Structure formats: C-alpha cells, structure tokens
Amino acid sequence: MAKLEAGMTRDEAFALLQEHNKDPFHIEHGETVEQTMRYFAREYDPENEEFWGIVGLLHDLDWEEHDDEPEKHTLYAAPLIEAAGGTSELVRAIQSHTSDFNPTLPKPELQMEKILFATEELTGLIGAAVVMRPSKSVMDFEVKSLKKKFKDKRFAAGVNRDVIRSGAEMLGWELDELFARTIEAMRSFAPDKDTFQAERPTE
C-alpha cells in the first residue's frame, strides 16, 4: 500500500489534542481510538500504522469546543490540523467519519476510514459497558454482554447504533464480527489502560 504522510509526529498530534481538549475524557477517548486504529493497522496496513494512529488520536479534535454544532464536526478541525502541518490526506481521513452528519464531507473509502467509522462509536459503547463491570476491565468482557448493551438504547444513549451498523456493512462484516474484533483490539492495549472513565459518548 502507498505510504501515507500525516505531516506531524505522534507527539505533535497529542500536543494539538491537548491544546483544544481540556476534559480528560476527551483525551482518553482520542487515545483509545488511536490504539484501536493501530491494532487494525498492524493487520491491514502495517507500513502506515503511525498514520492510522494519528487519525484516531485527532478524529474528535474539535468536538469539545464545538459540540453544539454536530453538523460542522471536523470542519473546525481542518484548519487547526493544517496549521500544525497536517496533510490533506490526514484531514480527509478524519472528516470521513462524520460524513453521516454532513453529506458534503468525503465518505469512507480506504479500509482505514471504514474502520474508524465503524469502531469510533463502538469503543465508546464498550468503554461505557466496561466501567459498569466489577473488574472495570475489557479483559473479561464478552460479545454477548456487548450485544445486550447495544440493544438497550437507553444505555449510553449518545452512542449512535446506526453508525455502528453502517460501519459493519461498509466493512462487509457481521455485527458480531465487528464487536469481537473491536473488543480484541481494546484488549490488545488493556495492560496499559484496562480501566475506563465514565462514558460520555462523543461523535
């Protein structure tokens, strides 16, 4: 696969995230999605793991400052990323995960973009479910438990189930496969971060 250039290092991306996000939850959400993306990159596109990770880290860069305008989510982020040296391909990948809000934005085409679209909301649902467990760990969390939470629309009501379904369809995966693989992805970095803050789902 072609080499993808983010135009910034991981440290520079994290500094940018911290500049525009003060709520620890939002920073943790970015890191969770970053590590989930890195997990899938190692399977599908190992040469570009850093790029996948930075996309995950910055995908909600502008959410905290502009959460009252969901239809403009990622539009505010674009100039911030560009000013920090980010490439047009980095901006495109990030904006693709909000194409359901704004049809003028690019739809996911690359495997990386489809995985971001499918897993970003799902990691929030998993995090919300895990924090309710006695262990507060994803290591003993199973697909059957996730399916129950997914069906209960009152649980983590801010998580858009339709986006998760659409993401699975884009990937050509059954929901159960998406659930199992995302749990596995989150387990892969659980030794470093196996507890989650109370979830307030972002978009």
Model description:
By secondary structure, the protein is mainly alpha-helical. It has a single domain, classed as Orthogonal Bundle (Hypothetical protein af1432), CATH 1.10.3210. The protein is built from nine helices and no strands. It has helices at 10-20, 24-44, 49-58, 77-83, 88-95, 111-131, 143-151, 161-171, 175-188. The longest helix is centred in the first third of the chain and has 21 residues, at 24-44. The chain is globular, with a radius of gyration of 16 Å. The model is unreliable at 194-203 (pLDDT under 50).
- Can you summarize the main beta sheet? none
Fraction of residues in helix: 55-70%
Radius of gyration: 16 Å
> Could you say what the CATH topology is called?
Hypothetical protein af1432
Number of strands: 0
Low-confidence stretches: 194-203
Distance between the termini: 29 Å
Class of secondary structure makeup: mainly alpha
Average pLDDT rating: 93
Oligomerization state of this entry?
A: single chain
Which CATH class?
Answer: Mainly Alpha
Q: Architecture, CATH level 2?
A: Orthogonal Bundle
Global geometry:
globular
> Number of folding domains?
1
Order of helix and strand elements from N to C terminus: HHHHHHHHH
Number of helices: 9
* Proportion of residues in β-strands: under 5%
Concise summary:
The protein has 203 residues and is mostly helical. It is 55% helix and 0% strand. α1 packs parallel to α3, α2 (24-44) crosses α9 and α3 crosses α5.
Question: What attributes characterize this protein structure?
Answer:
203 residues, mainly alpha, Hypothetical protein af1432, 9 helices, globular, disordered C terminus
